[in-house]
Structures
1.
Amino acid sequence: MGFGYGAGAYQQVRSHGTVETADPHGLILMLMDGAIERLTKARGHMLHGEVAAKGELISRCLDIISELRGSLDPKVETPLIGQLGALYDYMGRRLLHANLHNDPRALDEVADLMEKLRRAWAGIPADARQPQRLAEAAP
């Protein structure tokens, strides 16, 4: 899969590891970890009525999801790119709903989806993570 990488979202997740030494696969994992962490914190703020803190964390999570979506390379011919894009769009809509309606279930839903996606991403074999392998496999 082809992915581009923006520095802004990585700065947000820097606390999870060193961006400078991570490979592209690891950077995506760092983004996913950052989103999951922010969702957990946003839920706590939501339950305690801390509107500003909740909104800030949801906004940061939306930025991360936007970066994940933006990292998808539409030139790579696989249905997976479109499916992931649609999933990221859905997650963004659910976060907006959660923020507007103080709906912790929507936050939980997005966190669950992100955790499942992260587990799948982490399970990709190392030899399939290298960009040159992907380019060779493309028709």
2.
Amino acid sequence: MRLQQKLILLTTLSKGLMAAILLLALPWVVQSLVLRHTDDALRAELRQVQARIRQVGIAEFLPQHATAAGRRTHYDLLQDEFIDLEAITGLPAPDTIGTFPRRQHDALVDFRVLRHTDRYQGQLFTFEIGKSIASIEEVYSLLRTLAAYALAFAVLTTLLFELGVIGYLLRPVDHIVERLRAVRGPTPPDFPPLRTSTTDFQYLDASIQQMLTKIQSVFEQERQFITNASHELLTPISILQNRFENMLRAENLPEEAEAQLVTSQKTLQRMTATLRTLLLISRVENNQFARTERVAVREVLTDAVEELEDRISDLQLAVHWSLNGTPVLQPANRTLVFTLLFNLLSNAVKYNQPGGELEIGGQPEPNGAYVLSIRNTGKPIAAAHLPHLFERFRRFDQEAAEGYGLGLAVVRSIAQLHFIHISVASDTEHGTVFTLRLPAPVGY
């Protein structure tokens, strides 16, 4: 999973968790706020009643035919609120606020009640100011709904904002990945500095550029060494071959010495082939071959199969063609393309089983690219060996004495020069399949 996807998932989960916690706590919070607001309103009404009593006297709040002692309860029109005044004896009690039942229309209804004791004209009175819980619940329900909508809006808004910010902040990562994908060989393209204000990404980009430069330097040294060493070794090998040939022309040469000379000649020939292959790889990687031709891939495949006809006949292999369309490489070097395809077909024949199959197939893509596959039915390659298949001097079949593991290294170098993506898959059911994705010809 990509870093951006992980951050988006983390943000979404955190927002979801926050919303869940707030939704669980929302009823208690809203209820507490509504009750606190109701209690403050009851206290304000009490202060208004006390002010009215100081203005007109306590008698105005008592029954008309009562003296200082008496009780009076007044409800509003909808009976959602009441004020109760009662004369009492005893000691003053502290103010209390709570929920108590009151009889209303022959039914008990819960009220939020404020109780206050005060002395007027030498008489102790208890005031009760109440508000129906049902009316409070209406406000509570309204506030809860509004709070839920506000919470959902806030979560969605912040989530969308954070997703946009995450995408913007991580955009340089996509640019860095695109740059790394554009590197198809030891010589990286010349990229301008990454445009970002994030110092971490600037440091990462600079470090990658330094790493690519160092890798390029190491590869250049290796190429130069291989080129020089190959040239230097070819000369003494050529001299030794000439000497061996002269010695073989001697009339009095013993048979044992003649056999040893022939064996030495074969060894020198293999060394020469290896050195010439290393020189070819070095020249390809140094981009010393011109790519100015338009190469018909079907024609090159046909020529390669014809050269391998004797080996195909010896193993009695069945060759199947299923090339659709007209695969073309342009610009390309026909000699190198032939070497690439010949090496793949040669391996497909060499590591096949007698009476097996060799299948050459291909399919064009809508964008002009072409997918070419070469499949054989020989012994499958172990999965652990597949990542190292194109490395130099890697030979996984120890029974095969031929070759030094440079054929597929040549294939990889030529493929990189022509921007061909190559992959391999192998199993017991389908055999070994090399897949090449040829780029669209220039001007397609």
